[in-house]
């Protein structure tokens, strides 16, 4: 079965919703107009329950099937934008300067709304569908907050699925994998406090720039000499700030960066090695180091049975050769990881075609993907909750 006729018919309407959301991006947990738009649509479709205010602006809609009772299936989209100034030049460009839907969450929200509309019209399943719209995916952990607030128990959600668009993957194609599909993330800030002074008298100072340079160099060995070469690990220093003058050795130097892995034990190893390297090199240089290390999103881990099921559904919609079931893992992080820690489920990528990359100021979600995304969600619900 290719994409559903009804989903193809809905494309224009859903693309209009998508463009409306794209014009009006909001950030983090403050998705007041976005979540009101979503909740209004869900009520208009005749959802049996529409609950707002979960994790501040999260929304859950419940649709009961007409084929009897059964389990509750969770299907999740994210709604937040990014603090980026848009340069796409599209007609529906952001009207909110400094905010932009550069990750396609406008598309994710619209496709799940389209599926909700279809499912509320047809109700060709036994049990219930919970459509989950979360805030603060781009940092802030809105999905985690929804789980912490008891969403899974409250709605009796037994399995949960997520979807993200992927630039570079052709429209009409899907890709996923069993096991870790996206990385755990951690952010660190390190400050080295030395002793400032005149650059002509370095021996009377403790130069934090030299010490911090050694730390940055030594941190490269966490991946190359501490971790197993077969385990994925990224340690990136992305900020290095110190000093203001040609002739002054500053008092402090500061770096910051990110650590990403696909396994908990590798994440723990990286943190331990970074703490040791920083404190011992600082000590050797007679300086003092402060380390602020925040473990952030966990690994997004796709459960085996649910991933096999998602692949079968995607193949039904897209055709056998258009679904990659063993893609390489991606070292980006994803807040859906918390929902997959709470319930079995699976995360899949949907092709966005040849567009600018995610988080790029010229990115735009590809509306051609809409019928494919809606068809996936609808068939996932109908197949998973078959009478
Ligand atoms: Zn993103
Ligand atoms: Zn995203």
Automatic annotation (TrEMBL):
<keyword id="KW-0464">Manganese</keyword>
<dbReference type="GO" id="GO:0050118">
    <property type="term" value="F:N-acetyldiaminopimelate deacetylase activity"/>
</dbReference>
<keyword id="KW-0378">Hydrolase</keyword>
<dbReference type="GO" id="GO:0019877">
    <property type="term" value="P:diaminopimelate biosynthetic process"/>
</dbReference>
<dbReference type="InterPro" id="IPR017439">
    <property type="entry name" value="Amidohydrolase"/>
</dbReference>
<feature type="binding site">
    <location>
        <position position="164"/>
    </location>
    <ligand>
        <name>Mn(2+)</name>
    </ligand>
</feature>
<dbReference type="InterPro" id="IPR002933">
    <property type="entry name" value="Peptidase_M20"/>
</dbReference>
<feature type="binding site">
    <location>
        <position position="103"/>
    </location>
    <ligand>
        <name>Mn(2+)</name>
    </ligand>
</feature>
<protein>
    <submittedName>
        <fullName>Amidohydrolase</fullName>
    </submittedName>
</protein>
<dbReference type="InterPro" id="IPR036264">
    <property type="entry name" value="Bact_exopeptidase_dim_dom"/>
</dbReference>
<dbReference type="Pfam" id="PF07687">
    <property type="entry name" value="M20_dimer"/>
</dbReference>
<feature type="binding site">
    <location>
        <position position="359"/>
    </location>
    <ligand>
        <name>Mn(2+)</name>
    </ligand>
</feature>
<feature type="domain" description="Peptidase M20 dimerisation">
    <location>
        <begin position="186"/>
        <end position="284"/>
    </location>
</feature>
<dbReference type="GO" id="GO:0046872">
    <property type="term" value="F:metal ion binding"/>
</dbReference>
<feature type="binding site">
    <location>
        <position position="138"/>
    </location>
    <ligand>
        <name>Mn(2+)</name>
    </ligand>
</feature>
<feature type="binding site">
    <location>
        <position position="105"/>
    </location>
    <ligand>
        <name>Mn(2+)</name>
    </ligand>
</feature>
<dbReference type="InterPro" id="IPR011650">
    <property type="entry name" value="Peptidase_M20_dimer"/>
</dbReference>
<keyword id="KW-0479">Metal-binding</keyword>
<dbReference type="Pfam" id="PF01546">
    <property type="entry name" value="Peptidase_M20"/>
</dbReference>
